[in-house]
Design brief:
transmembrane helix; membrane; globular; mainly alpha; transmembrane
Length: 192
């Protein structure tokens, strides 16, 4: 199997993702710029081609749509950070109202802190499961059976979907880039 160094580097980075946990977040109120900075830093592994993942307008819309609590005197706390992180991660996979319902469901099952920490663990596990075979340069890609409790099924399913989407996009991007370079090289050799 030919080694794709760009895909390998990407897989290595994603297999090592470790999201900030509830207890690691600020215990004080922050302004929207600080909230955006935390979210952008935490999700920098998602940024492809300097894509803007979240803006003030998006956060304002999430509040307006009832997806997260309103800020208090234009200040945000760790609960807001958690909502924006999870929404930003899931919006490429699910419709926004399904994300809202999913968050509400998981909070009812586990409470805010446990629901968020469970989501982080599930995402990290899914990323490792999807990207480690790339790092190990396996010729076949066997999905292992996962033992998931019923209360974690939704979180596990959505994080696996996100991880698979990221892998698919990167494979397409790297192969398209390789084809474009190959076609350009062929065109250059015909010009001589």
């Amino acid at each position: 199997m030919e080694k794709n160094t760009e895909l390998y580097s990407y897989a290595k980075a994603l297999a090592e993702v470790k999201l900030i946990r509830w207890h690691e977040m600020p215990d004080f109120s922050i302004y929207s710029d600080q909230l955006l900075q935390i979210v952008r830093e935490e999700l920098s592994f998602l940024s492809l081609n300097d894509e803007i993942l979240v803006t003030k307008s998006m956060v304002n819309n999430y509040v307006k749509w009832g997806m997260m609590p309103k800020p208090i005197k234009k200040k945000y706390d760790k609960l807001h950070i958690v909502y924006v992180l999870v929404i930003t991660l899931l919006k490429p996979i699910l419709p926004i109202m399904k994300i809202k319902e999913g968050i509400q469901l998981q909070i009812l099952i586990e409470g805010h802190e446990n629901a968020y920490n469970s989501f982080c663990s599930a995402l990290e596990e899914s990323l490792r499961e999807v990207f480690i075979p790339i790092i190990e340069q396996r010729k076949t890609y066997d999905f292992k059976e996962r033992n998931i409790t019923a209360d974690k099924l939704a979180i596990s399913s959505i994080t696996l979907a996100l991880s698979s989407k990221l892998l698919t996009e990167k494979i397409i991007d790297t192969k398209m880039s390789k084809l474009a370079k190959s076609n350009q090289s062929e065109g250059d050799s015909h010009d001589k």
